[in-house]
Structure formats: C-alpha cells, structure tokens
Design brief:
With 419 residues, this protein is mainly α. The protein is 77% helix and 1% strand.
C-alpha cells in the first residue's frame, strides 16, 4: 500500500508542495475554532463568536473561486503569496483590535476569509506537471484527500495547544504567520513559478460554463450537507451518552474513517469509468449513513461514525479526477476552487438544516438528514450520468514546455498546462 505513496513523495518537488500546501492551509482549517476561542477570551458571547466565524466562512467561500480564476489568468506566485499576506494581516487586525469595534471585527474576519489563497486548487493544478503519469496523479488526488482529513483533525489540536501555552490572540497570530510561510514555500518552488494555465476562452462564467462540472458541484453540495448535518446531530446524541468527550470521539472517528478509506483507495489503480465509480462511492456513502439512525451506545456508535466516513475521501478523490476532466481549458484552478466552495456551502447549509430538525425530532431525525442528503446527491449523479461521463472540454492534447521545443506533444490532463 505504501509503495504508490512513496513513489509520489520521492518525485521531485512533490513532498514540498504537499507539505507547503497543508501548512499554508492551517489558518483556514483552524479559523472557526480560533475565532470562537478568541471571542470568548475577549468576553464576547457565543452568538457573536458564531456570527464572526460564519462571516469568515462565507467570505472564504466567495473568495476561493474568484482568486482561483485570477490564478489561472496571472499565475500562482502573483496571487497566492499576496493573498496569504493580506489574509494574515486582516486576521492580525482582528487579533489586535479585538471585539471593541464590531464593524472592524467583522471587516477583518471577512477580509481574512476573502483573501485566503486557493492553495488546494493550486496544488491539484500542479500535480500533472510534477508527476506526469496519469495513474500517479490519481493516487496523488487520493493522498491529497487523506491529507485534508489529517489537517482538519490536527488543526484544532494546534489551536488549543497555542491557547494553553500562550493565549487565544497568540494562536490567531502564530497560525497565520505559519500559513504565510507555507504559502511562501509553495510559490517559490519551481513547479509553481513556471506553471501557466492553458490559453482560455474569455467567458464571464469561467469554469461554470461546463455542464459536467455543474453536475459535480450540485452533487457535492448535498454531500457537504450530509457531513454538516452529522456534526449537528451528534451533539444531542453525545449529550445523552457521555457529553463532550463522546462528541469529540464521534468527530475524530468521522475523520479517521475518511483517512483510512482514502488511504486504501489511493493505494491501488482503479479500472473503469470514474463517473460510474463516483456513483458507486456515493451510494456506499448513503448506505453507511443509514446505520447512524440506530444510535447504539457510545462505543458502537463511534464505530458506525467511522464507517460513515470511510467512503468520503475516496469520493472526493474521484471527484478531483472528474473536475480536472471537465474544467474548461485554462480554468482548472478556478474549477477546483469551486468544488471547495460548494462543499463548504453545503456543509454550512447542512448544519443550518439539521438544527431545526434536531430541535423538532431529536437526534434520530438529525441522523436521517445525511442519508437523505446523500440520496439526493446520488440522484443528481444518476440523472446527469451521461454529462458527467462525457469527455470534458479540458481533455485535450497539450504541448510540452515552451522552453523545450523538441518535446513532442502528448495527451495530458487539462491541468497539465505548459510549464
């Protein structure tokens, strides 16, 4: 299992790009909990903390595809590093000004979210030029999905560690400084510096003019809803079965299941059409969501929650392949950023929907929401199966490097742009 991953990590620049991207995304992975802890330390209410965290999330969802489009137009270093610096400065303003002036606080967290650099989309755009082989790129996508689960598991622990060692203000500052350093590590690397998006057709919709991409985004909106609803439904369950400790175990189990599933999925090559494989993976997600409604005692419930996460990372990794296929020429970073945004919005919608459902019907009906949302996602993929399976606009022959005129053209992913 480890052979395929080691082969990728041994490739020149691969480990640096993966680690740099993960470190650069630390501010995004930790912002919600860091904001909440800082507002609490400042004497603010949980309502204010939640509102500020929500503003950050909405601004982040808006900024990712916009910055992704600018990356496709201008290259990575000109966008990623300035955006990371501006996001860090905005969070520093929030850390030093506190909540004494609410307009400044809201503007600062909005700026921090809006200028969060699209490092995820940028890394996925770089993989084909770094690895060259299609099967290695597929494995890298799976490794990327697994790394996300590690980051969103470790990130909150780092926040609480910084708070315990120093303060909530220090946590905001330190994590954002580290994030800027991570972005810097990526953009000064050779693949990032020389990467250029393929020539694109001017169109105001950008990546969204692809029907296949729109179908994928619609499906992952509902997968995001399913994940968001689990985080809410688990709260009343934990209250009845052991409190905060049980809730922590449930959330950790969800991430652990995704980590294991993604690791196993990326360890082998999969034959067949990825669109059909994505339908199967989402169907398995739905099947694994259903047992959550049994709500057994804490230990078996933790096991069921881990099972519910097993097929999440494989589904995301498979979606990466299809996004790359359907991204219109010259829009690959924007297309990947739209997937991030859609998933984030879906997660927020899921938490919003699950709240009233739990208040009305309790945890049982709360756990029904992910199964329903997952079922809708499967229906979307089934109804749009031909569109998703069709060859994408980006699946074209791309020439070799402008600096190597003797290199012959070869079929590439759409994101294997000229370097």
């Amino acid at each position: 299992m480890a052979t395929g991953y080691l082969e990728i990590l041994r490739a020149r620049h691969a480990a640096r790009l993966l680690v740099g991207t993960l470190v650069g995304r630390l501010p995004c992975a930790t912002a919600p909990i860091a904001i909440v802890l800082f507002v609490r330390a400042e004497g603010g209410t949980y309502s204010l903390a939640g509102a500020l965290a929500a503003v950050y999330g909405v601004a982040n969802a808006v900024g990712q595809p916009v910055l992704g489009r600018i990356v496709d137009l201008c290259g990575q270093p000109r966008v990623q590093l300035p955006a990371a610096v501006m996001s860090g400065l905005a969070m520093a303003v929030f850390a030093f000004s506190g909540i004494g002036s609410l307009p400044i606080a809201y503007a600062a967290v909005a700026g921090a979210g809006l200028f969060t650099p699209p490092l995820e989309g940028g890394l996925r755009a770089l993989w084909p030029s770094v690895l060259r082989k299609e099967d290695q790129v597929h494995t890298a996508y799976a490794m990327d999905a697994v790394a996300q689960e590690v980051m969103f598991t470790v990130g909150p622990l780092l926040v609480t560690l910084c708070v315990s060692l120093w303060s909530a203000q220090a946590a905001l500052l330190v994590l954002n400084v580290v994030g800027v350093l991570g972005a810097l590590s990526v953009v000064v690397s050779e693949p990032s510096r020389v990467w250029r998006s393929a020539p694109r057709e001017a169109h105001w919709l950008g990546a969204l003019r692809s029907p296949g991409l729109l179908a994928l985004l619609a499906a992952f909106l509902f997968i995001g809803m399913a994940l968001g609803s689990i985080t809410v439904a688990s709260v009343p369950y934990a209250d009845d079965h052991g409190g905060d400790a049980v809730y922590g175990w449930l959330m950790a189990a969800l991430g652990f299941g995704a980590l294991v599933g993604g690791t196993v999925y990326g360890a082998r090559q999969w034959a067949g059409e990825p669109a059909r494989r994505l339908q199967v993976l989402v169907a398995l997600l739905v099947v694994c969501y259903l047992p959550l409604m049994l709500m057994p005692e804490a230990v078996p419930m933790v096991a069921l929650t881990a099972l519910a996460g097993v097929f999440l990372a494989p589904a995301i990794a498979c979606a990466f392949v299809l996004v790359d296929r359907h991204a219109p020429r010259g829009t690959v970073t924007e297309a990947f950023s739209w997937l991030v945004t859609t998933f984030t919005v879906g997660h927020s919608v899921g938490t919003g929907v699950a709240g009233p459902v739990v208040e009305t019907g309790g945890a049982l009906w709360g756990f029904a929401v992910p199964a329903v949302a997952g079922g809708v996602s499967l229906l979307v993929l089934t109804a749009t199966g031909r569109v998703v399976a069709a060859p994408g606009q980006g699946a074209v022959v791309v020439s070799g490097s402008e600096n190597d005129p003797n290199r012959a053209p070869e079929p590439r992913f759409s994101s294997g742009d000229r370097a």
